[in-house]
Design goal:
Layout lengths: L6 H11 L5 E3 L3 H7 L7 E2 L6 H5 L4 E2 L5 E4 L2 E4 L4 H14 L1 H10 L18 H12 L4 H28 L16 H7 L8 H6 L2 H12 L9
Parallel strand pairs: 1-5, 2-3
Antiparallel strand pairs: 4-5
């Protein structure tokens, strides 16, 4: 999430996206596209552990698809879906015969020995084990940095959405933020506040909304999201 909080990277993405033929991402890379505003209102996917976070950027998460196309934006699920996306792009750019030949060249004929590669197929134990494994992949220090960056990205998304809804005369965040709404004073504050001065806005949120925001913030830590 630290990359998704890097304004230099986000600005570059916004500019590059204007002239790309395809704008693509694999795994949690779609969170960076989301933070850049590229996925607003679009269908997209990412790694299963980040689907809930993806929705906070105004995205329509497609949890059961490995590749999602919405216009020229193509997103892929977890890291292994990158191979599927690569072959799909070869087919779009060079044609099906070249894509099929490429698949044969890399001998891509997946026949996994186990069938737990999707959340719908995984047992409760599989999910718990996967969460522990991912949590152990990064140090406590790195996890703290990611949580800090994720919270910053999330709050920026909250502010941006509040500004849009306030400008439209609406008090509800709606899509992507179920049950989340601002009081009138919060909407007014959000329209002029920056993420770095979010305390006044936080204090004017309804208690239930404040709790929801905090819950979303905490969901950035690795392995928490198991829905």
């Amino acid at each position: 999430m630290s990359t998704a909080a890097d304004e230099g990277v986000l600005n570059w993405l916004r500019q590059a996206h204007q002239t790309t033929t395809w704008t693509t991402s694999v795994c949690s890379g779609s969170l960076i596209l989301g933070a850049a505003g590229i996925l607003q209102g679009k269908d997209a996917t990412c790694h299963w552990a980040r689907q809930r976070v993806l929705a906070t950027f105004g995205v329509n998460p497609q949890r059961d698809k490995r590749i999602v196309r919405d216009g020229k934006v193509i997103t892929a699920a977890g890291v292994s879906a990158g191979l599927d996306l690569g072959l799909w792009l070869v087919g779009e750019i060079a044609g099906r015969p070249r894509a099929e030949a490429t698949q044969l060249c890399i001998e891509y004929d997946p026949q996994p020995p186990f069938d737990t590669g999707h959340m719908s197929k995984a047992s409760t134990r599989n999910k718990a084990d996967a969460a522990r494994m991912m949590k152990g992949m990064i140090s406590a220090r790195a996890a703290g940095a990611e949580l800090t960056a994720g919270s910053k990205v999330l709050w920026t998304s909250v502010i941006d959405r509040a500004r849009r809804k306030s400008a439209a005369g609406s008090q509800s965040f709606g899509h992507g933020w179920p049950g989340l709404s601002l009081t009138k004073s919060a909407s007014a504050s959000a329209s002029t506040s920056s993420p770095s001065s979010n305390r006044p806005v936080m204090n004017t949120l309804r208690p239930s909304t404040r709790s929801k925001v905090q819950s979303y913030c905490s969901s950035f830590s690795m392995g928490v999201i198991l829905r």
